[in-house]
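Morning, I've got a small favour to ask if you have a moment. I'm working through a protein record and want to make sense of it properly. The fold is given in discrete form, as structure tokens running alongside the sequence. Can you walk me through what the tokens say about the fold? Thanks so much in advance, here it is:
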Amino acid sequence: MLEALAASRTRTEALACEETGACAPGFPCVPLDPASAPIQNASWVLLGGRFCFEFGAGTLAALAFVPPAPVGPPFYRLLAAHASVPILLGTWLLSAAGALSIPVACCAAVTVAALPCFALPTKGTFRWLALGAAVIGSGLAVILGTAELFQYGWLVASLATLSALGSGLLVGGIGVAMALGHAYLTYPNLKISHLARVHRLTIAILVGKAALLGATLLLIGGTFEPLQRALGSMGGMFGLFTRAAVGLFVPFVFALMVSSSLRYQNTRSATGILYASTVLVLIGEAVAMSLRGQAAGLPL
């Protein structure tokens, strides 16, 4: 009799929890139907680990567009070391979050093992094969990080994968362009065309990333419940506005200013603007990471 009363009270409290979203004192806040349980927000450790892999992969991919600029082996060593740090940090963060799978760990190992081969002061195809292996390894790690979204359908997963890769290319591309701009202080006779080539890449990535954001909101904004929940509050809408304005629109305006500076052969002004763009893009990605944690891991 007492057991039946306790079970009945537990069921009543659980129903109240589902309706109000508040847990009754002394009772666990567990929905009666596990399938109806709300998706838990992703931890910052997990989100940080995935962003680190995106950052490293984007830096390596953008680095492939630097040649044939004669910037010397030290530049490539610096950028290779710069890319290896987020890969190693991302591996540690995913491990700390309990989300480091064996395939992702293998991709990270391939990337880190290939980077020293690329950074060696050697010529020929070997170093570029090493860079290719690092790009593929880190890129696969980013793709595997969005594989869990296939449970929501191929459209959600495809948009998530492209958006994650785009975020990495955006941060990495602008960072590489800024580093190359600083190289003009060391190599004053370096042709403007090299920086202009990498800068055109960043413009294309900015446009593509903005298009992906618009496509995500248009195609699944009204049907993907976690995204609706993330953007359903005033804070969520403000976060989306900040992500689009600070992380995409203003850097695009700055990119046009960089193009104007390069037409006048002014690499110092271009580098300064790229520095400001890097800060804005990082702010935008930080806001997007917060939204991603509330939207079941969907990158925006």
User: Anything to note?
Assistant: Residues 1-41 have pLDDT under 50 and may be disordered.
